[in-house]
Amino acid sequence: MGFSQALSGLNAASSNLNVVSNNIANSQTVGFKSSTTQFADVYASSRVGLGVQVAGVVQNFTSGNLETTDRSLDLAISGSGFFRFEQAGQVVYSRNGQLTLTPEGYLQNAQGARLLGSNGAIQIPADGLQAQPTTEFDATLNLDSGSDVITAAFDATDENTYSYANTATVFDSLGNSHELTLYFTKTGTNEWAVNAALDGAVSASAAQALEFTTSGLLDGYTPTSFDFAMTNGAADISFELDLTGSTQFGNDFEVSSLDQDGYTAGSLVGFTIEENGNVVGNYSNEQSLVVGQIQLATFRSPEGLQPVGDNAWVETAASGQPLVGTAGNGQFGSLESGVVEASNVDLTKELVNLIIAQRNFQANAQSVSTQSEVLEQAVNLGR
Fold this sequence. Notes:
The chain is built from two helices and 29 strands. 15% of the residues lie in helices and 39% in strands. It is α+β, with helices and mostly antiparallel strands. Strand 21 (268-273) and strand 22 (278-283) form a beta hairpin. Strands 5, 6, 10, 11, 24 and 27 form a six-stranded antiparallel β-sheet that branches. The protein has three domains: 2-61 and 344-381, no CATH class; 69-126 and 268-341, no CATH class; 136-260, Flagellar hook protein FlgE (Tick-borne Encephalitis virus Glycoprotein, domain 1), CATH 2.60.98.20. The relative contact order is 0.20. Helix 1 runs antiparallel to helix 2.
């Protein structure tokens, strides 16, 4: 009987050596998770044990250290969650975010598996950003309450018929830029009129009326629109001028902010990945646009995931179904770009474990040798 106990010890020790050696071998593997061998004793009907068996190999999903690479396509998850990849028609999960960009614009790992987002595989569009005409124009400014009231009819060519003017750039549907001039005229106590001209041509739209309270704040203000006919093949420009937040204090005329939503056409010059997984395309016209969103997955019992190699796992009944969501939201960790998650193997600890596993193997081998000697002596007694 002693042989079976010793042999079971050798088999268990050998399995433990394999696990420890695998941990050491992957101490520099990005996103690798170490494993631990669990043992269980074996008993029959007698009180004498029948040896040992490997009860299981448990993975340790604690996070590894984040190491800076300064490579924009290197991603790491700070916290819980797994990247989702599509590989050979199957969804696999990984903590390794070392990505490359394919000629078709897909983000993929070294195995060619494509990174998944909210709408399938993440793909960076190669198309440029189409021009957008100005439809909204927001401005915040202060009109000097000490300005003189002007009673003459407005004439853009006569600076004596308006109090102040300010220029800005707007865009038509073809992406052409145009100079917009806003004219502010004080027409009465706490009352102003705003006219607009595009490239020197005054809009036929009615002037926008502004009324202020005695405290210098807008009173019952409603934004209105200005329309301009275009002759360059673009659609006519029509935008709403919103001066909400403007004041009439006893200070000089001052423009605090100008903002409009139009822009010229642009080509993709790069992209960035934000903490929440948004993939943002950056264009030559200084615009940015969310072109995709990386989503993460978590599991009720990640230890139940089945490793399939290449730093990847697949779900099993033991792991439960994945919960998919947005990075940085709830239980999902946030994404960091330009860093990778190092292996969580504690190399010093594993080297100690290797020595212990080796001694365990040697002890069981010695037990086999001793059992052999005992058996040989028993045979000799019977001669």
